[in-house]
Specification:
Structural class of chain B: alpha/beta
Number of strands of chain B: 17
Structural class of chain A: mainly alpha
Radius of gyration of chain A: 32 Å
Largest interface: A-B, 98 and 91 residues
Strand content of chain B: 15-25%
Largest sheet of chain B: 9 strands, mixed
Largest sheet of chain A: 2 strands, antiparallel
CATH architecture of chain B: 3-Layer(aba) Sandwich
Shape of chain B: globular
Shape of chain A: elongated
Oligomer: heterodimer
Number of helices of chain B: 14
Number of helices of chain A: 30
Chain lengths: 806, 494
């Protein structure tokens, strides 16, 4: 935060002082006449440069260029700043610079702090301008400060030697030794391992984004093999839902949406094909280096396959403005800028966007270097290609192709596409390892992508592993996942981060699982994401309990030392998935086009793109996972937004986790969630053979993946009685609570539940008939219990625990 | 535990608020306010708890009337007799050489006068167009700025700049900044409420987004018919009693979990459910206008006949009623302690058919907005409530001769000079700030940038716009980016 005093106060004080002292040498605010120019020949080096250095350099020099103005080099000084040209040689009377330093502008007086220039000094500057504003030799630039050269994240990644720890039984793998070292230094013991039920629910949410089924839980609880936990990890890594879960994280980074954004916000009917590519690539564990290359430059690979062209859809998720009157070039440039910024955040972990308008103030990235990166993406044109896909005979996909002929790139002053500056060839920032020059001269996106995943690159693996850690612990080792620069937070465990990064690129630990029948052999080589997930999730660090530790509340309030796991509220899509899964309404089909589940009426009227109307999906499509929900940028699905899904206009490397009353209203009253409660309550009651106790067990297992505690049974009994007494007074509500019989059109992809579901349907139909037969009579006890069961299920689906991975 | 003891498990609101932390940025905020010696001990309540401003505020609420699409200042607020004289003449090269247009063909564009009749009104004698007969009766309460300017040239970037201080996506809106800075004074309603009429804006939710601030600071979109907040109504069969029993039961279960785990986030959740429950009764009460007198209804134009709309771009049938209702709701929200109310209507983007389109839009807005000012004043609320009428830019003095148009009947986008007004909050009424040249092309006196307006609004709330910051991606962001100068005339300090 900058506390500069308001200019008029300082100037006013000076004016007062000047008036009191009767001084005439001090310029006062809003002086009406300019001091005359000096009547002698002025020498820049002796007369002028010292004035600039003393009074102007701190804000308009090499380090800072406030208002876009730099006064220590001839070119920039002549170009001027945000307010226009500072001076034109020969015309000192019209110079903004002279007006500002002489106090002739009512709003701006320079310098804002420190001594003002005397009339004599202003006269010297006037004379210098009038005499042609000649400069001496520019001094060598001092942009690369030694601080930047030493910044941790720019150092090569070297594999650290795992530290020696005193406690040798706790660590399960090398990860734990890094964590334990810090804990031992602080004399803190790790938390105990969480119980099996918690572990399975945690693992399931983290790896596939779904809660364990009661059968999976039972199997794990009964598994006495020593490697039972590792086998669960392998099972989940091999599940087709793995790609959905980790694909959604990647979609956040890629600002994925199903529409253009901006005013027209037209639909993007092919966008999902890229999402499909991501899910499949993650499921087959496409090594991250290849994953990177195909998405940034798949079209440039020799004999690029169709799926590699589809991969370039990563950078087709930029916004498109088709607003009437918009200059297409302006928004083409905006898309290129977004590609540079996104690439910077996702792979480099650097906020390169600052340098779009000025050299980065804090990180070693100049304006010119920004446009060097820009030049790579300025060579990519958007196309919708007909591509043969395994799923679709011939389909259009949104991809990038190399511009031909080459489109020259220039610096854009203040990022304005109407103010091109000097030409810039594609190049990478100086402070990073050099980009190998291809034989034919100019490097392309392909060279850029290969450069990013070169094991000598200090950032890509660190940034990627940090995000993986963030997903598994709720916060990264570097808590600013998109800022590894000097303004970001340094890593809490730098050696661990480097160990993970090297192990990611150059594996040493033996992690290949035994071959599984009917499963393709798994890849566990360099850049394998699944391999790193297995290492981390198998660590003792990951397996700890997440209960807050009051004794550490003061010393480690944000749990940076990781003396426990963290409780993490589920992401928006997973909240939906969890409710659908618990109620067995979830349709587990993987992939395909986006769907439009029910949303409150009137949402899509909020924008004025008439093509964005929401036509509700029917049948099983209503019960798909959250990541398949159509994402309309100007009127996103309200449930997702209420739970902090990103707006998908720019890359998002870390989601918020808010806790609001609107979330409560969604879970309590949204028809989707109420339908889940109806289904869950009724089916758990059906399975309980009339026993409240068994009902509560079934309900808790299905929704929370554990058994109820004795205290909870007591509480539940009280709540049950209260619901029942209320309903006895208002029996007409029972039928409404039970709703219509469960829809049968949702089950074509969930065959195992079919027979049960049919049974429920028949029973339900009977209850409904009972009502119509005896409207005024007391409600049948069975339907009263069913209605109470629905209310109980609704309550459980609203618990903090239900939407929290513990 | 019995169900009755479950109901007793009630956590105070303050406890809830203290528990729901909003990240490092809030700590920064707390530390800022502490520096001003206005927050007590470290760890004082953050989140939506009401907190004192760093210096004494003049207002405690703002009603920001956002008329999206750029209403023509030349036909509403800024009379240009010379422009009428020059009607049909080309614009001198000196004006057009350096500028862009969205649709205009520079070479053949001609100046276009206004058919509107401007007359002085009130004691101040401010001239307004005949399209604003009701607002004309309120001129002595408003401060009209004729010297607004902006950099944004297309609608969506312009909307973002006006509402969030930046043309880039992902920045918090002014209402979010205020909710972040000052919290909420309402027990039962959100701090920041958005009401729309008609089609909604092209920018959608990004205009009231909390950006990188935690999402509890985002504008909560109330709908203007049916449920004011999504999912306020209980599902079928869930009576109010059953809902109360459910909330109590939830508190009991969640309370058990919290007792076991000690995570304050669970306490926040319990309280969020309680506020949700209170909102379920407060929000319907809020939108039930049956308790308002007939005179009030009539004043805001509720139930007035709606003219034949034809192809009006301001929205479907019923839009006049919706806008009237929103204006009245805005007053009711402010009465109930809501900090920031955003009234949104689109679109005023009159590239063609300007006379008819603008007449209808002005007719829709004029009476209810004027009524809002009068009503706030008669209830003694105007002094503590800032009312702003604003849009993202203005319209050209040139007629729009877009390719394919056979007649010139509208105006193009004009960011260099436009008009808006503010009222209330002790702002001196009956004044005109700034001036444009004889055709309304450039500002000639007292330019006011969008950031200047934003800086002044925050100042009225007792906040220095340079000090209300949030650390994000390695730097401190603020509403006014790197700009913003207070407008002394608005503060009555000239």
């Amino acid at each position: 935060m900058r506390f500069s005093k308001p200019i008029h106060v300082i100037a006013g004080c000076l004016a007062l002082v000047a008036a009191l002292l009767g001084s005439t040498s001090t310029t006062v605010l809003a002086q009406q006449t300019l001091p005359p120019p000096a009547e002698r020949t002025v020498d820049f080096e002796t007369d002028i440069r010292p004035l600039f250095a003393l009074h102007c350099d701190s804000c308009h020099g090499a380090k800072k260029q406030l208002s876009g103005f730099r006064l220590d080099r001839e070119g920039e000084a002549l170009r001027g700043g945000d307010n226009g040209r500072a001076f034109t040689p020969g015309q000192s009377a019209d110079s903004l610079l002279v007006k500002y330093i002489a106090g002739l502008d009512p709003d701006i007086l320079m310098p804002p702090e420190g001594d003002l220039l005397s009339d004599t000094q202003v006269g010297l500057i006037r004379a210098w301008i009038d005499q042609g504003a000649k400069w001496g030799q520019d001094r060598p630039a001092t942009v690369q400060s030694s601080t930047n050269q030493r910044h941790w994240s720019l150092q090569p990644v070297l594999r650290p030697v795992p530290p020696v720890v005193r406690q040798t039984t706790w660590p399960r793998n090398l990860v734990d030794r890094f964590i334990l070292q810090k804990l031992e230094t602080e004399q803190v013991t790790p938390s105990p391992e969480a119980d099996r039920a918690t572990l399975l629910r945690r693992l399931s949410f983290d790896l596939i984004g779904l809660p364990p089924t009661p059968a999976e839980l039972e199997q794990f609880l009964a598994d006495t093999r020593p490697n039972a936990y590792e086998l669960q990890v392998e099972r989940l890594l091999a599940a087709p839902h793995f790609g959905e879960r980790w694909g959604r994280h990647w979609l956040d980074l890629a600002r994925y949406a199903d529409s253009d954004g901006y005013e027209k916000d037209s639909p993007r009917p092919y966008a999902w094909r890229w999402r499909q590519w991501v899910i499949e690539a993650l499921n087959r564990d496409l090594p991250f280096d290849q994953f990177t290359i195909e998405q940034l430059a798949g079209d440039l690979l020799p004999n690029a396959r169709p799926d590699q062209q589809v991969a370039t859809g990563f950078h087709r998720n930029t916004l498109t403005n088709k607003e009437g009157g918009a200059d297409p070039e302006e928004f083409r440039v905006a898309a290129v800028v977004d590609r540079v910024n996104t690439t910077g955040s996702v792979w480099l972990g650097l906020t390169v966007g600052c340098a779009q308008c000025h050299s980065h103030k804090y990180d070693p990235l100049t304006l010119r270097e920004y446009y060097g990166l820009f030049a790579f993406f300025n060579q990519a044109d958007e196309v919708d290609l007909p591509v043969p896909l395994p799923t679709d005979e011939k389909a259009l996909v949104s991809a990038l192709v190399q511009t031909s002929p080459v489109r020259p790139s220039q610096i854009l002053l203040k990022g304005d596409f109407l103010r091109p500056g000097e030409p810039v060839p594609p190049h990478t920032p100086d402070v990073l390892p050099p980009l190998p020059t291809p034989a034919n001269g100019t490097p392309t996106r392909l060279e850029l992508a290969r450069w990013l995943v070169n094991p000598g690159h200090p950032l890509t693996a660190r940034v990627t592993m940090n995000r993986v850690w963030q997903q598994l612990f709720g916060q990264g080792l570097v808590s600013t996942p998109d800022d590894f620069g000097t303004q970001g937070t340094p890593p809490s465990h730098p050696q661990l981060l480097d160990w993970l990064a090297t192990e990611f690129m150059l594996p040493t630990l033996e992690m290949v699982p035994p071959p599984m029948p009917r499963q393709p052999p798994v890849y566990r080589g360099p850049w394998s994401l699944k391999r790193m997930l297995k290492i981390i999730t198998c660590s003792a660090t990951y397996r700890q309990q997440s209960n807050p530790r009051p004794e550490l509340g003061e010393r480690d309030p944000r749990n940076v030392w990781l003396a426990r796991q963290n409780r993490i509220r589920l992401e928006a899509e997973i909240v939906r998935d969890a409710a659908l899964a618990a109620s067995e309404l979830l349709v587990r089909t993987v992939g395909g086009p986006s769907v439009r589940p029910p949303q409150p009426a009137g949402i899509s009227d909020l924008t004025y793109a008439s093509r964005t109307r929401w036509t509700e999906s029917t049948g099983p499509e209503r019960y798909r996972r959250g990541l398949y929900t159509w994402f309309q940028r100007t009127s996103p699905y309200p449930m997702l937004m209420t739970f902090d899904a990103p707006e998908s206009n720019v890359t998002c490397t870390r989601r918020e986790r808010s806790n609001t009353p609107l979330q409560s209203l969604t879970l309590l009253n949204d028809p989707v969630f109420f339908e889940c409660a109806q289904k869950l309550g009724q089916s758990a009651w059906q399975s309980a053979a009339g026993s409240q106790d068994q009902f509560l067990t079934a309900l808790t297992r299905r929704s929370l993946g554990r058994d109820p505690t004795p205290e909870e049974r007591q509480t539940a009994e009280g709540v049950w009685i209260r619901f029942r007494d209320q309903l006895r007074k208002q029996p007409e509500q029972i039928r409404l609570l039970l709703g219509s019989p469960p829809s049968t059109d949702s089950k074509d992809t969930a065959p195992p539940a079919e027979s049960l579901e049919q049974a429920v349907t028949v029973l339900m139909a009977r209850f409904i008939l009972n009502f119509t037969d005896s409207k005024d009579a007391a409600p049948p006890a069975e339907s009263l219990d069913q209605a109470v069961a629905v209310l109980m299920a609704r309550l459980i689906l609203n618990l903090d625990e239900f939407i929290t991975r513990e | 535990m019995s169900p009755d003891s479950a109901t007793q498990l009630h956590l105070g609101r303050r406890q809830f608020l203290a528990g729901s932390a909003g990240g490092a940025g809030l700590l920064a905020l707390a530390s800022l306010f502490r520096q001003q010696q206005l927050l007590g001990a470290p760890g004082a309540p953050t989140s939506l708890a009401a907190r004192p401003a760093p210096f004494p505020p003049r207002v405690r609420a703002c009603i920001f009337i956002y008329l999206e699409g750029a209403p023509s200042q030349l036909d509403l607020f800024d009379p240009k007799p010379r422009l009428n004289e020059l009607d049909g003449q080309p614009l001198p090269e000196s004006f057009t050489a350096q500028v862009r247009f969205a649709f205009l063909q520079k070479e053949t564009a001609r100046l276009m006068g206004s058919p509107r009749v401007f007359r002085p009104y009130g004691a101040s004698g401010i001239e307004l167009s005949d399209l604003l007969p009701h607002l004309s009766q309120q001129v002595d309460n408003i401060s009209l700025i004729r010297s607004m300017h902006t950099e944004a040239f297309n609608h969506h970037p312009g909307q973002l700049l006006l509402n969030t201080g930046s043309q880039m996506f992902g920045r918090p809106s002014m209402g979010s900044w205020l909710a972040y800075g000052l919290g909420s004074e309402s027990e039962n309603l959100p701090a920041y409420v958005v009401l729309t009429a008609g089609r909604g804006t092209s920018g959608g939710t990004s205009n009231w987004s909390s950006g990188f601030l935690p999402s509890n600071y985002a504008g909560v979109l109330f709908r203007n018919r049916g449920e004011p907040v999504l999912n306020l109504a209980n599902p079928p069969g869930v009576t109010q009693e059953l809902q109360a029993a459910s909330i109590a039961g939830l508190a009991a279960f969640n309370g058990r979990r919290q007792a076991r785990l000690g995570d304050p986030e669970i306490a926040s959740r319990i309280s969020a459910y309680e506020l949700a429950f209170r909102m379920q009764s407060a929000a319907p009460e809020l939108i039930d206008l049956s308790g308002e007198t007939e005179a009030t209804h009539a004043m805001y134009g509720l139930g007035r006949p709606e003219p034949e709309l034809g192809n009006w771009r301001g929205g479907p049938k019923g839009c006049f009623e919706a806008f009237s209702r929103n204006c009245l709701l805005a007053r009711r929200l402010v009465e109930r302690g809501v900090r920031f109310v955003n009234l949104v209507h689109a679109s005023w983007d009159h590239h063609s058919d300007l006379d008819r389109q603008l007449s209808l839009s002005a007719q829709m807005a004029d009476q209810p907005v004027a009524a809002l000012l009068a009503d706030l004043k008669q209830r003694g609320l105007l002094d503590s409530t800032l009312v702003v009428w604003a849009s993202e830019f203005g319209r050209t003095p040139l007629g729009e001769n877009r390719k394919g148009y056979d007649k010139v009947t509208g105006r193009d986008h004009h960011p260099f000079a436009f008009s808006l007004w503010c009222a209330g909050g002790g702002i001196p009424g009956g004044q005109v700030i700034g001036e444009t040249d004889e055709i309304g092309w450039h500002v000639t006196r007292d330019p006011v940038h969008v950031h200047d307006l934003q800086a002044t609004c925050l100042h009225l709330f007792g906040i220095d716009h340079r000090q209300l910051t949030y650390r994000h991606q390695g730097r401190d962001f603020r509403l006014t980016d790197v700009g913003g100068k207070l407008v002394p005339q608005l503060l009555g300090t000239t």
